[in-house]
Specification:
Layout (H helix, E strand, L loop, with lengths): L4 H25 L12 H8 L9 E5 L7 H7 L5 E6 L2 H10 L5 E5 L5 H7 L5 E6 L10 H12 E11 L4 H8 L2 E7 L6 E7 L3 H5 L1
Parallel strand pairs: 1-2, 1-4, 2-3, 4-5
Antiparallel strand pairs: 5-7, 6-7
Length: about 210
Amino acid sequence: MTKPRTSGAIARMLKPVKTWSTFFREFARHPAMIGSIIPSSPALVEAMLAPVHWQGTRLFVEYGPGLGTFTRPILEMMGPDAMLIAIDTNAGFIKHLNGEITDRRFRAVHGSAADVRSIIADHGFREADYILSGLPFSTLPEGVDEAIMAETRLALRPGGSFLVYQYSRRVSTLLERHFGRVERGIEWLNIPPCRLFWAYREDALAQAA
């Protein structure tokens, strides 16, 4: 029996409600693991991803994708042979993304960013071109922040970049300890204004020099 057309229209109207209810439910359960209750603005997404060279990108990794505010724009800009792996410790967000995004270039993984190298290896990769993170480093358990930084650097290809957006300065010191070059910015068209960091893994020749 064919469903009435009105049922499809109602489902589309209720979809944003379902998405927001998922977000608020998970925020209530794990407030310290979610950077902000307000999703990143389009201006923040654009500024954060501006330095990415999409044509040469084969693997893009995202930590803490939430409901996919960055995930969808990344997929729109990636090449047809690239892959995006999103990693989150929140099973609710992973379930939501796997249910909403059917792009063959996308994988949502329930796990820790501290295990990034084993996760990308499980998907047939040795290194990533870019890794993006909105994880709230200022509220992570002691030692986890350092572990994520160390593993992220090793997971990136020489010359690869760690893209970080934060509402605290604390991550700046962490990045400087692990990466050879760190660039900074602020996006004011976001609530609240957000600090942006682009940290680059030095290539082998630069390290040797």
